[in-house]
Amino acid sequence: MIAAADAGPALYTERHPYMRYDTVMSRVPASQLFFLAVLCALPVRAARTLELYFIDVEGGQATLVVAPSGQSLLIDAGSSGFNGRDSGRILSAAKDAGIKHIDYLLITDFQPDHVGGVPNLLQRLPVMTFLDSGKSIDYPTEYSASLAKGKHSMVAAGDQIPLKDLDVTLVAAAGKVLDRRGATNPYCAGVQTRSGENTESTGVVIQFGKFRFADLGDLNWNQELSLLCPANRAGKIDLYLTTRSGGESSSAIWAMAPRVAIMNNGPRKGGNPAGWKNVMASPGLEDMWQLHFALANGKEANAPDTLIANLNENCEGKALKVSATADGAFTVMNTRNKFSRSYAAR
Fold first, then answer.
1. How many structural domains is the chain composed of?
2. What's the mean pLDDT in 270-289?
3. CATH number of the structural domain spanning residue 126
């Protein structure tokens, strides 16, 4: 029998902990050639998919990424309290995905709506490795204590998270952005920097074949401009999760040319009209989906009801689920009404 390859690469303990990982090839004995010929004659298996779950944590963040290999990455864990509401919703998504542990938990910043839910999560799902920028001067005691329950690595812009079949690149962390060339961004003209905002948020771009997804966490206005101006270092993307729960962003994001945007807002948090309208104005945007109807916005600054996972303030916490294939095609499904829309490869 052919020995199975390692489940994944060993982690380094230094500042830049990851490196690319090559599959070790084995020579097939002649005695197995007939068996392989039989396998080749079988019908081709359906294409594997990347699964993304945008979990309703009422305006914070919890995004579950499940690679075709079955490995998992959870980006943030929502808030604490509410009788374990957010961890329960993460567990529901994990059950739907068929996973029983989280391989990597990436904390984009140390605010309560991103990191507060970690202790509750660990009561329901084990976490193998914790990833964060390690820069918070107000490190939450509860999160710090949780780190003893798994491995812990600090990450920096340019690092990669080793999920099989995916390219997972951190494009921002600890106030710094990815250092690489990019195409000149024509939408930077006239955009001014701002002051007084947190700068430490971590952002990530996940690529599966031709499909690209950007989650920039709570990346603030100035760091957003550093990443995207005067050159777009993030590149073109297919799916964009709005920053700061759908808060105001600059026209610089238009250079990423997202086909679809998802707003991780709550009924009364995030999703403000200026932020919503700026994302909607992105050239080539086909649809905006939302986790909640933004109560203060009215119909003119909300997506159609069919594209909103939760319409009422007191809701069941329904999620939005995305399935993507390596050719760049993807489907978004609203778990509240089972409505889905597919976006063809291009």
1. 1
2. 93
3. 3.60.15.10
